[in-house]
Amino acid sequence: MIVDFIRAHAERREPGSGLRWGVEPICAVLTQHGIKVAPSTYYELVNRPVTAAEWREALLIHKIREVYEDNYRVYGARKVWLQLNREGWRVARCTVERLMSGEGLKGAVRGKVKRTTIADPADQRPNDLVQRQFAPCAPDKLWVADI
Q1: Dist CA 45 CA 26 (whole Å)
Q2: Are 38 and 27 in contact (CB under 8 A)?
Q3: CA dihedral 57, 58, 63, 67 (to 10 degrees)
Q4: Where exactly are the transmembrane stretches of this chain (predicted)?
Q5: What values do phi and psi take at 36, rounded to 5?
Q6: How many distinct helices (H) and strands (E) make up the chain?
Q7: What is the CA radius of gyration of the chain?
Q8: Handedness of CA 85, 89, 90, 92 (dihedral sign)
Q9: 114 to each of 43, 66, 111, 117, how far by Cα in Å?
């Protein structure tokens, strides 16, 4: 994330002044603000080759999105995981959950919310004995109960 920020701002020119920011000054400013990053760390991360795990994760994200879209954005992590296993992708369900969460993909929630209490509009309500004044003048002067 920091690498992306530095990459987006490095070598960018300020309009009107011609001032150009390099990697080292950006790292110095970030360090002053509590985000400790050395220029060597930035260059190491930028020049690092993509690992096999990162490559597989990128392929999985693409495949998860494909299954999700093919099923009208209804499938959640469990059904996407089952479909991937049917198609020969051996992956753990927790991995599918993590990747879907990271991509913002959520399954449809079906069902109706069960309403347990339906108040009768014609029924008489209890009297408001304290007239909505819930600050008692002394201890043991105002008690509340919920039945």
Answers
A1: 16
A2: yes
A3: 90
A4: none
A5: -80, 115
A6: 6, 0
A7: 29
A8: negative
A9: 56, 34, 9, 9
Average pLDDT over residues 23-28: 89
Neighbour-count burial of 64, counting CB atoms closer than 10 A to its CB (0-12 exposed, 13-18 middle, 19+ buried): buried
CB-based contacts of 30: which residues, under 8 Å, 6+ apart? 2, 6, 36, 37
The contacts found for 41-44 with CB under 8 angstroms, 24 or more apart, are 42/2, 42/3, 42/6
What is this structure's pTM?
0.58
Q: Are 27 and 6 in contact (CB under 8 A)?
A: yes
Express each pLDDT in 88-98 by its tens digit.
Answer: 999 999 999 99
Contact 89, 60 (CB under 8 A): yes
Which residue in this structure is represented by tokens 């991995």?
A: 95
